[in-house]
Amino acid sequence: MLDYLFIFILALNLLVGILLGMSSIGGFLLPLIYVGFLQLPLRESLALSFLSFAIAGIIGSYTYWKSKNIDMKLAIIISIGSIPGAFLGVQLNVMTPDHIATLILYIFVLISGVSLLFNGKNDQGSTSTTNILEKKWFVLLLGFTTATICALSGAGGPILLVPLLTKLGLSIRVTVGVCLFNSVVIALPSMLGYFQYANMETLTPLIVASAIGQLAGILTGSYLSNKAELNQLRFFITWFTILTATYMIITLFI
Question: How far is CA 36 from its chain centroid?
């Protein structure tokens, strides 16, 4: 059974990594599949998911930093607020009954899919930020709130921050860079928090599979990104997410 899971999780992370490398979306599918289809324990699923989010975020944020598409000041202030938010989110999840926490995960993934549906054609962003992003207290609160929700739900970080920051006037390219950096800051404490509630003896091979698959997938997806039809890819990810999350929510009540 463990060999089967190793191969499946390796392949799954490879596929999702390719999607991330090509389109920067799709990471939230991991906890959905782990919990909904593989029936892995919730906290182990979230630990593996945040490990993958961390790897994707490190590679992505480095790429955006190298191309000078990260507002590091904004990213750092948001991330300072995100650190306690991530720890709080993990604790809230642990205190929540499994069936409720699973429902929260499915609902948040559904919201992520719907968000892609309505924001997919509005990716241009603006060229200047609004005054509210110059207020440190607001940026810290934004980082704290989004990190808490992301760590609690387990569905990742950029899917919340990207539409919020673009609505506040940040250009889409800088927004993605900031959110990738922030996703690492959310993922690391969340991953460590959930690993405390996991069976590390059985989870260690799956950690290796996740890391190898995600790394190989992102590098492959980045190479293929200029050869893919991104609108069609986004369309597929959006509707697969919406339909799958809806189905999983329904099954919880049957």
Answer: 17
DSSP secondary structure string for all residues of 124-155: ---SS--GGGG-HHHHHHHHHHHHHHHHHH-S
Predicted confidence at residue 237, as pLDDT, reads: 85
Helices (H), the chain: 2-23, 29-36, 42-66, 72-95, 98-119, 136-153, 158-167, 172-195, 200-224, 230-252
- For residues 140 and 77, the answer to whether their CB atoms sit within 8 Å is yes
Q: How confident is the model at residue 192 (pLDDT cuts 50, 70, 90)?
A: very high
Nearest to 184 by CA among 90, 83, 111, 94: 83
Average pLDDT along the chain = 87
Environment class of residue 209 by beta-carbon count within 10 Å: exposed (0-12), middle (13-18) or buried (19+)?
A: buried
pTM exceeds 0.85 = yes
Q: Taking residues 153-179, report their average pLDDT.
A: 82
